[in-house]
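Figure 6 in text form: structure in, sequence out.
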């Protein structure tokens, strides 16, 4: 559907519009600060949008992590929090929900997704092992490296081409993985780290056929598959839409089948599960579970709360159920696609096809005159904020970090600026404002000179690095 049609809802005979499957019950006022105030704020933040104060932001598209709007049922669930230190009833509700909806036997709660990554990495990686995966994610790779592992990318080559239309860019390159196993030996493979969807590729999905074939490849070698299920609900939507045999299956059924081809999963509940904090790791293996349950006491909290209040576990359990509703998922991805259609009609370069949680601007194509060492994606995030107060985030060379051996930048093929859409938060009118700001910055793109990094933290530098503009 073209954007021109979508923006004139109902004006053409026969058109029937869709609407969000919820209504607004409470609002939070937004504040727009002046251009001079935005310039001062960005300078104070070292041209890093992560260091801006939220009070200085108009439309916040930094992340969809913990920024979602909870439902009335979730808010009511907070009142049912059992804050007992041990054995609170909310843990058992969460455990039963994960077992029923995702299918894993054993559940360990954590304060958020990276807590689960940490526990799994320490439990399942021996120093010197390799962790193949379908494109890195920042915190996941960091925990794998801190545990002594080496991440190896085995995503299909199509994932690295922003403009290419491919229905399942998140797929594992099975031939590449088979060659890696043959070359290194199965004992050197800690596990396969499978993300669904693949954030750094633009929110791109994995097909059911691919994960099924991955299971068949790994089984004879005794190699386990662990799933980043953070946005699995959105991945299931794309399977339902694009993969033969799944059009009549529910999102919930697709999620359960997908998980059945893996040995465990970790999740940041701050995304799909529609809450502001929380996560979990779940596995089938009894021995691995025993190690995870011991480590969670050291790093997070007792195994029946894992760093969470009882009320938060209750909200997660309710949010899991709400996230699996087909009409909700269609509306969630529909809003992302609405923004993508606006930008595509204006011939602004974005990752295609549009993914599930965000629009990824192709900063390499946006600023074709800037070398990657001038941080074009970081530059684009800064320019968007200056133009309108919209906060986006960098997903390129800054996020990729440095090679721990050579010390040089990792240089990803994709240099992206992410416009991440929180769930159930903004309206289509907000998306219009965002699109118009992107168009304004695009029209002035030749005036940008890029940034230089003036402060670089040791770990996950994109969170705290500081920059200054290059002039002339």
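Output sequence:
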């Amino acid at each position: 559907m073209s954007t021109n049609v979508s923006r004139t809802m109902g004006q053409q005979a026969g058109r029937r519009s869709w609407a969000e499957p919820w209504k607004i019950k409470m609002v939070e006022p937004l504040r727009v600060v002046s251009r001079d105030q935005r310039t001062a704020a960005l300078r104070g933040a070292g041209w890093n949008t992560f260091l801006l104060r939220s009070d200085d932001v108009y439309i916040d598209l930094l992340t969809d992590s913990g920024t979602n709007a909870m439902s009335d049922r979730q808010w009511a669930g907070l009142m049912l929090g059992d804050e007992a230190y041990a054995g609170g009833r909310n843990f058992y509700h969460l455990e039963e929900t994960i077992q029923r909806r995702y299918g894993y036997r054993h559940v360990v709660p954590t304060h958020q997704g990276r807590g689960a990554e940490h526990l799994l990495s320490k439990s399942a990686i021996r120093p010197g092992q390799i962790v193949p995966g379908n494109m890195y994610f920042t915190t996941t790779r960091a925990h794998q490296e801190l545990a002594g592992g080496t991440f190896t990318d085995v995503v299909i080559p199509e994932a690295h081409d922003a403009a290419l239309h491919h229905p399942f860019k998140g797929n594992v390159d099975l031939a590449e993985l088979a060659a890696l196993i043959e070359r290194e030996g199965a004992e050197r493979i800690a596990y396969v780290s499978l993300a669904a969807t693949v954030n750094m590729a633009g929110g791109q999905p994995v097909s059911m056929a691919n994960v099924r074939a991955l299971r068949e490849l790994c089984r004879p070698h005794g190699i386990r598959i662990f799933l980043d299920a953070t946005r699995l609900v959105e991945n299931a939507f794309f399977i339902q839409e694009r993969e033969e045999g799944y059009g009549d299956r529910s999102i919930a059924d697709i999620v359960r089948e997908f998980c059945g081809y893996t040995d465990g999963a970790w999740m940041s509940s701050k995304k799909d599960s529609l809450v502001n904090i929380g996560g979990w790791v779940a596995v089938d293996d009894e021995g691995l579970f025993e190690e995870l349950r011991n480590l969670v006491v050291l790093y997070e909290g007792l195994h029946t709360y894992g760093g969470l209040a009882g009320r938060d576990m209750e909200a997660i359990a309710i949010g899991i159920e709400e996230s699996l509703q087909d009409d909700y998922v269609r509306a969630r991805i529909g809003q992302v696609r609405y923004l993508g259609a606006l930008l595509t009609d204006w011939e602004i370069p974005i990752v295609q096809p549009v993914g599930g949680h965000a629009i990824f601007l192709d900063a390499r194509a946006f600023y074709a005159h800037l070398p990657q060492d001038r941080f074009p994606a970081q530059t684009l995030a800064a320019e968007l904020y200056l133009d309108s107060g919209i906060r986006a985030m960098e997903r390129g060379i800054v996020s990729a970090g440095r090679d721990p051996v050579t010390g040089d930048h990792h240089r990803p093929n994709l240099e992206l600026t992410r416009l991440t859409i929180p769930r159930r938060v903004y309206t289509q009118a907000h998306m219009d404002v965002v699109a118009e700001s992107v168009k304004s910055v695009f029209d002035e793109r030749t005036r940008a000179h890029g940034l230089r990094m003036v402060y670089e933290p040791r770990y996950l530098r994109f969170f705290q690095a500081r920059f200054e503009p290059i002039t002339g």
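Caption detail: Confidence is low (pLDDT under 50) at residues 1-11.
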